[in-house]
Design a protein that fits this description.
With about 325 residues, the protein is of the alpha/beta class. It is built from 13 helices and 11 strands. A 7-stranded mixed sheet has the order 5-7-6-8-9-10-11, sandwiched between helices. It has a two-stranded antiparallel sheet with strand order 1-2. A two-stranded antiparallel ribbon has the order 3-4. A hairpin with an 8-residue loop joins strand 1 and strand 2.
C-alpha cells in the first residue's frame, strides 16, 4: 500500500492513502488533508505540567500522569477523516460507527467486527475529534460514513455512536435530514450535556483535552446538546453506571459512567433505553452492549430493555 504523505502538522500514527485499496476486506479512502492542533495540544500539556513544581521531579506518579495525558492527546491526533469499510452479507444495510472525543476507530472496532459477523456492512469512521467545534466535526464525520455506505449501494444506513458521536449525528441530521437513515444506537451520549464541562470549564488544561467540540457539551442553554430538539428517528440509548474515573464521577449526578450521567443520556423521542454496568471508556467493548446493539438494529428494541418504570425508578429516573 503506497503512502501519499505523512502528517506534518501533527504527531500522527496514521497515514493518508492515495486512492482506494483493499487489505483484508478493509478499504482506505483518501480524504482532504486537515490540519489539527494536536502538536499544539501536546506542547501545551508538556509546558503546563512541566511548570508545575511537583511534576519537575522524575517521580513515578508525575511521570505516569503526564505520559497518560500525552497519550490522550495522541489518541485524537488523526489528521484526515477516513473509513474502515467492509461489505457484509446484506449489502442493503450498512452501519456507520462514530467514535467519541479523543478516541479513534479502534474504540469501535469490537462493535464493527461483531456487526460484520452479523451480516451488516460497516463503515468505521476515524475523524479528528480535536479539529474544531461541532459545526465542523459533524459533517466531517457523518458525511464520511454516509458516503461510504451509499457508495456501496446500501439503501438503509444505521448508526452506532459513542459519546459525542451521538451529538454529531443529531446536529448533522437537524441541519440536513438524512433520507436513508435507519436505526440508531447511542452509547453514553451527552444528550443533555455533561456537568463535568460546567464544573471544569475554567480549569487549566480543560480546553486542551476537551477541544472546541468538547467545550460545547455543557448543560447550559447555550450548549449544543440543549439546542437540539427531540429526535425523529428510531433511537436506542445505552447508558453506563460503572466508572473508573472517581474524580469526574464526583462531579456528576448519580448514577453515571464517569463522564455522563444516566439521566443526561436520555432524550425525548427515544424508542428504547438500556442501563448497563460499564464505564464510559469501555462501553463500546461490552459483550452485553454489542449484543443489544445488534438486536436494536435488527428489531428496533433491546433484548434487555430498561424501559420498565419500576427499574428506572430504582435508579432515580422518571419514565418519560
Amino acid at each position: 500500500m503506497r503512502a501519499l504523505m505523512k502528517c506534518k502538522s501533527c504527531w500522527s500514527r496514521e497515514k493518508a492513502f492515495d486512492g482506494e485499496e483493499s487489505n483484508n476486506n478493509w478499504v482506505y479512502v483518501r480524504r482532504p488533508h486537515l490540519k489539527t492542533n494536536c502538536r499544539s495540544n501536546i506542547e501545551q500539556v508538556s509546558q503546563f505540567f512541566g511548570n508545575m513544581q511537583p511534576m519537575r521531579s522524575p517521580g513515578t506518579y508525575g511521570t505516569t500522569f503526564v505520559a497518560a495525558l500525552l497519550l490522550v492527546s495522541l489518541e485524537a491526533c488523526v489528521t484526515t477523516p477516513r473509513t474502515a469499510f467492509s461489505v457484509g452479507s446484506s449489502s442493503e444495510e450498512c452501519v456507520v460507527l462514530i467514535h467519541g472525543l479523543n478516541r479513534s476507530w479502534k474504540a469501535m472496532e469490537p462493535m464493527a467486527e461483531a456487526l460484520r459477523s452479523a451480516g451488516f456492512s460497516t463503515a468505521n469512521v476515524d475523524y479528528p475529534s480535536q479539529a474544531g467545534p461541532v459545526e465542523t466535526l459533524a459533517p466531517l464525520a457523518i458525511d464520511t460514513g454516509l458516503n461510504e455506505c451509499r457508495h456501496s449501494g446500501a439503501t438503509t444506513i444505521h448508526f452506532v455512536t459513542h459519546s459525542i458521536g451521538g451529538i454529531l449525528l443529531r446536529y448533522s441530521h437537524a441541519a440536513s435530514p438524512i433520507p436513508d437513515l435507519g436505526r440508531v444506537v447511542m452509547l453514553g451520549p451527552p444528550n443533555k450535556g455533561s456537568e463535568v464541562i460546567d464544573i471544569a470549564r475554567d480549569w487549566p488544561a480543560t480546553e486542551i483535552f476537551a477541544g472546541e467540540a468538547g467545550m460545547q457539551m455543557g448543560t447550559g442553554p447555550e450548549s449544543v446538546p440543549q439546542q437540539l430538539g427531540p429526535v425523529d428517528f428510531e433511537l436506542g440509548i445505552i447508558a453506563g453506571t460503572g466508572s473508573i474515573n472517581f474524580i469526574m464521577s464526583a462531579m456528576l449526578p448519580e448514577p453515571n459512567d464517569g463522564k455522563v450521567s444516566v439521566e443526561s443520556t436520555r432524550i425525548t423521542g427515544m424508542d428504547d433505553f438500556l442501563i448497563v454496568t460499564d464505564d464510559h471508556h469501555y462501553i463500546t467493548e461490552s459483550e452485553v452492549v454489542i449484543r443489544n446493539t445488534e438486536a436494536f438494529l435488527r428489531t428496533g428494541a433491546f433484548e434487555d430493555s430498561s424501559m420498565d418504570a419500576d427499574l428506572l425508578s430504582s435508579f432515580g429516573i422518571a419514565e418519560d
